[in-house]
Amino acid sequence: MIRPLRLAQVAAEAEILRWQRMAARTAYRAAYAAIALIFLVAVLANLHILVALWLLPKFGAVTTSLIVMGGDLVLLIGFSALAAMSSPGAIEREALQVREAARVQLVEAAATASLIAPLVRLLGNRSLFRVAMAGFMAKMFTSAMRR
Predict the structure, then answer these.
(1) What pTM does this model have?
(2) How far apart are CA 60 and CA 53, in angstroms?
(3) What is the phi/psi pair of residue 115, to 5°?
(4) pLDDT tens per residue, range 54-82
(5) Cα–Cα distance between 77 and 56 in angstroms, integer?
(6) Could you give the residue ranges of the DSSP H alpha helices within the chain?
(7) 52 CB contacts (<8 Å, ≥6 apart)?
(8) 64: closest CA among 78, 40, 48?
């Protein structure tokens, strides 16, 4: 009995360590992405200046500024529309359904076990307890196969 408990403890400790390392790695990745974003803004600012300097001799200062702002506005509207249209995909919806079905089955299993086990133990017959548990497992198996 002690060995399975120790194995479960080792597995839990390993999982905690894995989640800690994943969190640390994610934090580093986020920091690197923030630094990269700073340089991306610098590149875009330089691109604006380059376009403005290229258009300035042809159109003048005011018209050049309006052209650059118009281009920015088109990009703003386009990316904003893409962000607004983003909705959960089929895989995300299906994963939510699977999670909810598993949660419902878990609640049903816990409720059934909490009702059956004390009743069978109260009767005191070990073979009756085994029969009841076998029936319970068969019920869970058939309900899982239907979903």
Answers:
(1) 0.52
(2) 10
(3) -90, -40
(4) 999 999 999 999 999 999 999 999 999 98
(5) 25
(6) 2-59, 61-85, 90-123, 126-146
(7) 64, 65, 68
(8) 48
